[in-house]
């Protein structure tokens, strides 16, 4: 008996579904692309239970007759590709002819379609890849794809689906991608009977971006005018540097109407900002690239997310030069709205707050005498520590008639603050050699123990007189809502404000954040990166506090002024020598080690 045999059609389609249908969002992608290829001017997507129960895509495209409706269920059946020459110049969103039969093989599938000049339509019912019923139906012109109980006959695939909110977020993101790529098409999305968004068709891409990214982003958009070179053209919009995000989730690139991901284009965007964006952040952008289809190969990725340019260096240079020309006037970062006040977590009373300089401690008295021969005296009374951890002995150089005088601030490890190194590290003289202090790591430890080491009711919250409104995509909002209790415990009061908008009503008083929006967005980025594929689960508060402290320390400035106070705060911590994730706060280089370098 031969060992090799041809797979049955249904099984072959289920195997193909493993590449085409990763999750409900994959189904939506394929169906929406078919609608756009059919010339639809209106596309409606409806899901239930994250798409596991129902996915329904309705369009007003060209529709199909009975023969075509049945043929589209056959593998490798397509109207978009006729010969091999067309494969090198694809002009349609889809072309392989595998999506519909693959989806029908792993679901309870219904196809209803009617051509515009036909009197009646056709309805086809498919159960797990087997056609059960074909009948005449009265329908509006266009096509309806209805997918129920996705992966009902492939339980191994179904159990790997994430929480409903996570799958819904992926579907919403996919629909928004195509809505951005095709602003001239109306897109509507409904979830569990509720309208998530209804975006009317518009010739203005800025209007479509504002409808998806929110009004704040829409007002700050910087236009990238049409720039042509090398037989291709690019245009679009970018946001100022302060809107940069971790990862590339806020970069949207469309090639001939197709959403794509390309690291070279992302690199060009980053380079165009010329250092205005930190190394671990990426600018937000929406770019539309048009080129001859023969200059790009779109048949290199199962989901068609990645493409291969025949002139990649030219594409990168075109994007780089276009964005560089667009970025001409720097935008000032947003300031804190309203005067801060303290909201007691126990009583709920609002208490006005007098802003304190970062170097102020429990009690500081500074006496300055005008006589040039007199010294400047500082008397610092550091509050009693919570633990028995050793306190730093800080020697501060004070000028008096060209002499250095050491002023004792506390007891414990003996340090003399010398200077800063490249505005990144503080240089300290220890009892036996040189000590380097990382201010960011120190602040991270201080903030972490301020949250994790305190009773929840003792954490004070700084209320905003004018709440901050932040527009989030579905993924980010999902992370916030699953960690809502952690936000509240940390003194960050956030509430949904309708759609994808989040309202920030208060911030932790200990942070003194000047820009609540920037801080909350950076914290969300940190959480998204940490949670990864487990977005349906909230983090333990200790882990949440660790991520919060990391973001709070990001803007810590390395400066000689206030170093004594930073050291005093650090050595009040239970574990002053490392960050919450184990990185060192101080590094000691002994005299012997230094001497060996010179031997």
TrEMBL record:
<dbReference type="InterPro" id="IPR042120">
    <property type="entry name" value="MutL_C_dimsub"/>
</dbReference>
<dbReference type="InterPro" id="IPR013507">
    <property type="entry name" value="DNA_mismatch_S5_2-like"/>
</dbReference>
<dbReference type="InterPro" id="IPR038973">
    <property type="entry name" value="MutL/Mlh/Pms-like"/>
</dbReference>
<keyword id="KW-0255">Endonuclease</keyword>
<dbReference type="InterPro" id="IPR042121">
    <property type="entry name" value="MutL_C_regsub"/>
</dbReference>
<dbReference type="Pfam" id="PF13589">
    <property type="entry name" value="HATPase_c_3"/>
</dbReference>
<dbReference type="Pfam" id="PF08676">
    <property type="entry name" value="MutL_C"/>
</dbReference>
<dbReference type="GO" id="GO:0004519">
    <property type="term" value="F:endonuclease activity"/>
</dbReference>
<keyword id="KW-0378">Hydrolase</keyword>
<dbReference type="InterPro" id="IPR020667">
    <property type="entry name" value="DNA_mismatch_repair_MutL"/>
</dbReference>
<dbReference type="InterPro" id="IPR002099">
    <property type="entry name" value="MutL/Mlh/PMS"/>
</dbReference>
<keyword id="KW-0234">DNA repair</keyword>
<feature type="domain" description="DNA mismatch repair protein S5">
    <location>
        <begin position="209"/>
        <end position="328"/>
    </location>
</feature>
<dbReference type="InterPro" id="IPR037198">
    <property type="entry name" value="MutL_C_sf"/>
</dbReference>
<dbReference type="InterPro" id="IPR014790">
    <property type="entry name" value="MutL_C"/>
</dbReference>
<dbReference type="Pfam" id="PF01119">
    <property type="entry name" value="DNA_mis_repair"/>
</dbReference>
<comment type="function">
    <text>This protein is involved in the repair of mismatches in DNA. It is required for dam-dependent methyl-directed DNA mismatch repair. May act as a 'molecular matchmaker', a protein that promotes the formation of a stable complex between two or more DNA-binding proteins in an ATP-dependent manner without itself being part of a final effector complex.</text>
</comment>
<feature type="domain" description="MutL C-terminal dimerisation">
    <location>
        <begin position="417"/>
        <end position="566"/>
    </location>
</feature>
<dbReference type="InterPro" id="IPR020568">
    <property type="entry name" value="Ribosomal_Su5_D2-typ_SF"/>
</dbReference>
<dbReference type="InterPro" id="IPR014721">
    <property type="entry name" value="Ribsml_uS5_D2-typ_fold_subgr"/>
</dbReference>
<keyword id="KW-0227">DNA damage</keyword>
<protein>
    <recommendedName>
        <fullName>DNA mismatch repair protein MutL</fullName>
    </recommendedName>
</protein>
<comment type="similarity">
    <text>Belongs to the DNA mismatch repair MutL/HexB family.</text>
</comment>
<keyword id="KW-0540">Nuclease</keyword>
<dbReference type="InterPro" id="IPR036890">
    <property type="entry name" value="HATPase_C_sf"/>
</dbReference>
């Amino acid at each position: 008996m031969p060992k090799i045999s041809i797979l049955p059609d249904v099984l072959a389609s289920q195997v193909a579904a493993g590449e085409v249908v990763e999750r409900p969002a994959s189904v939506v992608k394929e169906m929406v692309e078919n609608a756009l290829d059919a010339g639809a001017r209106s596309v409606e997507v409806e899901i239930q239970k994250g798409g596991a129960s129902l996915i329904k895509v309705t369009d007003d495209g060209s529709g199909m007759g009975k023969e075509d409706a049945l043929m589209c269920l056959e593998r490798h059946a397509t109207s978009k590709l006729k010969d091999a020459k067309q494969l090198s110049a694809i002009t349609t969103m889809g072309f392989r002819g595998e999506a519909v039969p693959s989806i029908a093989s792993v679901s309870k599938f219904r196809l209803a379609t009617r051509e515009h000049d036909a009197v009646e339509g056709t309805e086809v019912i498919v159960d797990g890849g087997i056609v059960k019923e074909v009948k005449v139906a009265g329908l509006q012109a266009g096509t309806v794809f209805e997918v129920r109980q996705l992966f009902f006959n492939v339980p191994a695939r179904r159990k790997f689906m994430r929480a409903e909110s996570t799958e819904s977020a992926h579907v919403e993101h996919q629909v928004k991608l195509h809505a951005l790529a095709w602003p001239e098409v109306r897109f509507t999305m409904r979830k569990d009977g509720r309208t998530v968004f209804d975006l009317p068709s518009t010739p203005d891409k800025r209007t479509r971006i504002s409808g998806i990214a929110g009004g704040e982003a829409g007002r700050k958009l910087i236009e990238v005018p049409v720039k042509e070179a090398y037989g291709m053209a690019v245009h679009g919009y970018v946001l100022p540097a302060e809107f940069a995000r971790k990862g590339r989730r806020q970069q949207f690139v469309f090639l001939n109407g197709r959403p794509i991901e390309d690291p070279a284009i992302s690199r060009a965007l980053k380079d165009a900002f010329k250092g205005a964006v930190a190394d671990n952040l990426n600018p937000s952008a929406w770019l539309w690239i048009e080129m001859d289809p023969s200059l790009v190969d779109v048949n290199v990725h199962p989901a068609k997310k990645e493409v291969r340019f025949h002139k990649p260096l030219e594409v990168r240079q075109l994007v780089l030069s276009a964005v560089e020309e667009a970025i001409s006037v720097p935008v000032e970062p947003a300031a804190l709205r309203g005067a801060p006040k303290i909201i007691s977590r126990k009583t709920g009373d609002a208490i006005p707050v007098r802003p304190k300089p970062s170097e102020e401690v429990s009690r500081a008295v500074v006496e300055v005498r005008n006589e040039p021969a007199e010294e400047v005296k500082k008397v610092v009374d550091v509050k009693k520590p919570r633990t028995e951890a050793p306190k730093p002995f800080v020697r501060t150089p004070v000028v008096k008639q060209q002499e250095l005088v050491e002023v004792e601030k506390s007891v414990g490890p003996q340090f003399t603050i010398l200077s800063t190194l490249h505005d990144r590290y503080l240089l300290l003289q220890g009892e036996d050699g040189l000590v380097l202090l990382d201010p960011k790591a120190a602040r991270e430890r201080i903030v972490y123990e301020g949250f994790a080491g305190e009773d929840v009711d003792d954490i004070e919250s700084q209320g905003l007189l004018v709440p901050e409104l932040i527009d989030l995509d579905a993924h980010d909002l999902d992370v916030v809502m699953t960690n809502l209790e952690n936000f509240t415990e940390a003194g960050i009061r956030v509430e949904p404000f309708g759609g994808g908008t989040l309202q920030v009503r208060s911030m932790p008083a200990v942070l003194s954040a000047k820009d609540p929006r920037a801080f909350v967005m950076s914290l969300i980025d940190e959480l998204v990166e940490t949670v990864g594929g487990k977005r349906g689960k909230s983090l333990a508060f200790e882990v949440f506090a660790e991520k919060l402290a990391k973001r709070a320390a990001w803007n810590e400035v390395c400066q000689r002024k206030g170093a004594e106070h930073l050291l005093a705060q650090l050595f009040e911590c239970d574990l002053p020598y490392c960050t919450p994730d184990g990185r060192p706060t101080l590094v000691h280089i002994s005299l012997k080690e230094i001497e060996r370098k010179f031997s």
